[in-house]
Structures are given as C-alpha cells and as structure tokens.
Specification:
Blueprint (H helix, E strand, L loop, with lengths): L1 H14 L1 H17 L1 H46 L2
Helix pairs in contact: 2-3
Length: 82
C-alpha cells in the first residue's frame, strides 16, 4: 500500500521536473535556515510513516487470519457432514 503511494509520487515527480526541483530547493532552503526544526519534522514524519506501516501490516494480518478461520469453519462442516 505504501509502495503504491511512493510509486505514484515518483511517477509524478519524474514527469514534472520543475515541481521536483522546486520541492527540492524549498527543502534545502528550510534545512539550511532551520535545521533543528526540520530534523524534528523529518523524525516525526518518519515516526508517522512507521506507525502507518505497522497499522496496515496488522490490519492485513487480521483480515488474512479471519479469512483462513472462515475457510476452516466451512471445511470442518464439510467433514462433519452438515
């Protein structure tokens, strides 16, 4: 899921180099003028990304487990003969 967003962003920036250069220049300017705040913001962004990743990973695991449980229930009913 996260890889899809990254691929979309990469495709957008590769087709629009002016936007990519503008975003890069703004980030360089902000890191140069306010490094402490920008590193805090970068760390917070990384933290939010990791939390989002684990939440989506956990949600996929739960959905996979519930699907397998439903399949096992139906298999058990077939064996019993209901």
């Amino acid at each position: 899921m996260l890889s899809e967003y990254l691929q979309t962003a990469r495709a957008f920036l590769s087709t629009n180099p002016v936007v990519a250069i503008l975003i890069g220049a703004i980030l360089i300017l902000l890191f140069y003028s306010r490094p402490k705040q920008m590193f805090k913001l970068a760390a917070f962004g990384l933290f939010i990304t990791v939390v989002f990743y684990f939440i989506t990973l956990f949600a996929e695991t739960v959905s996979t487990g519930s699907k397998q449980k439903d399949q096992m229930i139906y298999k058990s009913k077939d064996v019993i003969g209901d």
